[in-house]
């Protein structure tokens, strides 16, 4: 469904961050991309979604391809709105809801690329079925929602574009364990019931490997290990490094979130 | 006391017009973070456009208005595309300098195209004031207020109901996240300039009629600064309240002070107010609330 072939990404024309990443996400599966903070996971997802531009990043070599009706098409060097229209949506790290818009307006913004208004209404109801709490808070401005609700809103907003592939960047970040479990369950259901193919980036490796079929481990801009999720779960290195490290990682990446917020107005 | 009511009512009516033009300014700032010093010059340009078209006598007013609005939308698009888009990512100060440069270019262009000298912009509005309960109300002020209210309501509906309105607000909140949902951020930028163009068209028609059309008309547009400083650079509601306050204050100040100082109070009192507000509330009274969750 989606494959990256030897992708390199450079920021500011000088900082090489992805050093030849290849990942394959088969149709209908959940693939997880694991790795410690700064490995290049978010960069990978942003490269796929075509939103590196604002951060002065660029895919310099390799290709990103999506399977369309008539075979594989390259989606690198396309505009982000084209990529969304082709059925790939990114739910960014740190939730990034539109704080001054109501929950429902956030969802409608998620459907921006669509013209089939009747179907948009139906999908709105579908999102509310998946996230009943959002239905209750549809008129609340997103900035006032709790962290868990914001994460649900971010995922729901992604769903509103009717994606075939959803890229999820650390949906468990900063959430209480119970909420994390709830979110993961919903992700699993979206995959099974709605047939959405999912590429899931996580620091919470233990959790991610329970719902994914496949996993890749990233370090320093390279995939250093990949395999079936249950194989990875039993791998000694992974047990030691990732199943233990997630706490430290979570704290570090929280700093990232703030960093992104500062950069928010990049276009001015 | 009746004199006071005259000043209040007419001040508020004019204030609505300030509000409308300030909304054009706020929109650009909200969506693109560009401080547009040329908003007043857009107003002037629109006024020239209207005066010239009416002066030719080819078209009646009802036909001139849509042509003017379309022309100003087109001008907004062209300015965004030609001048501001290449500056994306450049320091804020460069962008400000460019809008100041743009202001003077528009003034120069108007002078070259349409010659110096003040033109009339006749509107079919009666001159003798209405008298309502002993209060004298100037008809053009009523027209101004109705135009402003209709436009503001239309903008309000656009922002809350339409696909692009929601997209504009989304971009104002988070540009990169907007891109992830497939919003074309640049198109939104262009759109905010187009809407500012429409607001300028309304302002140009009304003020062109009240003051006559020449390049000095651009100065009226500079009243957006006290308005938006009062209301907060990025608040639409603030622009409306700020407009009303500025209209009110200048009307009352002019009414009571002009006889002593020989006129001209209107032209500086709003700026005095602006400076005072900056001392007390640097972000205005309605500046973007930073949502802090607990
Ligand atoms: N906009 C940017 N400009 C320069 N370097 C960046 C930028 N964004 C991320 N990086 C760097 O790229 C590396 C990978 O970052 P990222 O993809 O966010 O990692 P992860 O999501 O795995 O934590 C880090 O070293 C980070 O400092
Ligand atoms: Mg990351």
Distance from N terminus to C terminus of chain B (CA atoms, Å) equals 50 Å
Number of strands of chain A: 10
Biggest beta-sheet profile of chain B: 2 strands, antiparallel
Overall number of strands of chain B: 2
Oligomer: heterodimer
Q: What is the arithmetic mean of pLDDT of chain A?
A: 88
| Spatial sequence of strands, sheet with the most strands of chain A | 6-7-8-3-9-10
Q: Which architecture of the largest domain in chain A would the CATH scheme give at its second level?
A: 3-Layer(aba) Sandwich
Mean pLDDT of chain B: 87
| Shape category of chain A | globular
SSE series of chain A: EEEHEEHEHHHHEHEHEEHH
The H-and-E topology of chain B, N to C, reads as: HHHHEEHHHHHHHH
Overview of this structure, please?
The complex is a heterodimer of chains A (268) and B (294). Chain A is α/β, with parallel strands linked by helices and 268 residues long. Chain A is built from ten helices and ten strands. In chain A, helix 3 (103-110) runs parallel beside helix 6. Residues 245-268 of chain A have low confidence and may be disordered. In chain A, the strands form two sheets. Chain A has a six-stranded mixed beta sheet with strand order 6-7-8-3-9-10, sandwiched between helices. In chain A, strands 2-1-4-5 form a four-stranded antiparallel beta sheet, with helices on one face. By secondary structure, chain B is an all-alpha fold. Chain B has one domain (2-280): ABC transporter involved in vitamin B12 uptake, BtuC (Orthogonal Bundle). Chain B contains twelve helices and two strands; from the N terminus they run H-H-H-H-E-E-H-H-H-H-H-H-H-H. Chain B has a two-stranded antiparallel sheet. In chain B, helix 1 (2-32) packs parallel to helix 5, helix 3 (61-84) packs across helix 8 (185-211) and helix 5 packs across helix 6 (163-173). The A-B interface holds A 49-51, 54-55, 79-81, 83-85, 89-92, 96-101, 105-106, 108-110, 112-113, 141, 143-147, 157-158, 160-161, 260, 264-268 and B 32-34, 88-89, 92, 95, 160, 163, 166-167, 169-170, 172-185, 189, 288, 291, 293. Residues 11-12, 15, 17, 35, 37-43, 55, 57, 253 of chain A line the site of adenosine-5'-diphosphate (ADP).
């Amino acid at each position: 469904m989606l494959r990256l072939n030897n992708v390199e990404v450079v920021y500011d024309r000088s900082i090489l961050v992805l050093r030849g990443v290849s990942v394959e996400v088969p149709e209908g599966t959940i693939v997880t991309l694991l790795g410690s903070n700064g490995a290049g996971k978010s960069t990978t997802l942003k490269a796929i979604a075509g939103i590196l531009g604002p951060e002065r990043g660029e895919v310099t070599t390799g290709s990103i391809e999506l399977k369309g009706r008539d075979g594989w098409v390259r989606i690198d060097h396309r505009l982000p709105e084209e990529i969304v229209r082709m059925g790939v949506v990114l739910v960014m790290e740190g939730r990034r809801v539109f704080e001054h818009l109501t929950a429902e307006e956030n969802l409608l913004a998620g459907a921006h690329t669509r013209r089939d208004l009747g179907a948009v209404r139906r999908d709105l109801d579908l999102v509310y079925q998946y996230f009943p709490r959002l239905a209750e808070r549809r008129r609340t401005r997103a900035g006032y929602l709790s962290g868990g609700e914001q994460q649900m809103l971010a995922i729901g907003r992604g769903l509103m574009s009717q994606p075939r592939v959803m890229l999820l960047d650390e949906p468990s970040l900063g959430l209480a364990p119970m909420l994390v479990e709830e979110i993961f369950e919903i992700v699993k259901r979206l995959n099974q019931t709605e047939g959405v193919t999912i590429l899931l980036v996580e620091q919470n490796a233990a959790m991610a490997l329970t719902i994914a079929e496949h996993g890749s481990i990233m370090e320093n801009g390279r995939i250093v290990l990949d395999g079936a999720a249950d194989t990875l779960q039993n791998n000694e290195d992974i047990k030691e490094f990732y199943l233990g490290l997630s706490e430290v990682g979570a704290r570090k990446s929280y700093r990232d979130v703030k960093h992104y917020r500062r950069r928010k107005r990049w276009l001015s | 006391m009746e004199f006071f009511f005259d000043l209040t009512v007419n001040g508020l009516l004019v204030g609505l017009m300030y509000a409308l033009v300030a909304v054009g300014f706020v929109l650009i700032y909200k969506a693109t973070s560009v401080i547009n010093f040329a908003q007043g010059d857009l107003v002037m340009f629109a006024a020239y456009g209207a005066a010239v078209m009416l002066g030719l006598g080819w078209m009646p007013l009802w036909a001139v208005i849509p042509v003017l609005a379309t022309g100003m939308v087109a001008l907004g698009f062209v300015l965004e595309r030609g001048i501001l888009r290449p500056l994306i990512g450049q320091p804020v100060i460069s962008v400000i300098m460019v809008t100041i440069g743009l202001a003077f270019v528009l003034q120069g262009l108007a002078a070259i195209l349409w010659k110096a000298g003040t033109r009339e912009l006749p509107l079919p509005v009666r001159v003798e004031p209405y008298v309502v309960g002993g209060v004298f109300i100037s008809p053009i002020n009523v027209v101004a207020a109705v135009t402003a209210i209709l436009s503001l309501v239309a903008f309000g509906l656009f922002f809350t109901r339409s696909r692009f309105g929601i997209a504009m607000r989304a971009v104002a909140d988070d540009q990169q996240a907007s891109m992830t949902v497939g919003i074309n951020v640049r198109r939104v930028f262009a759109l905010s300039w187009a809407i500012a163009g429409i607001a300028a068209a309304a302002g140009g028609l009304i003020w062109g009629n009240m003051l006559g059309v020449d390049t000095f008309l651009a100065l009226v547009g500079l009243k957006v600064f006290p308005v938006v400083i009062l209301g907060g650079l990025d608040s639409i509601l603030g622009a409306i309240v700020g407009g009303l306050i500025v209209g009110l204050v200048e009307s009352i100040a002019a009414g009571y002070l002009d006889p002593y100082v020989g006129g001209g109070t209107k032209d500086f009192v709003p700026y005095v107010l602006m400076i005072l507000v900056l001392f007390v509330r640097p972000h205005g009274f309605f500046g973007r609330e930073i949502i802090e969750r607990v």
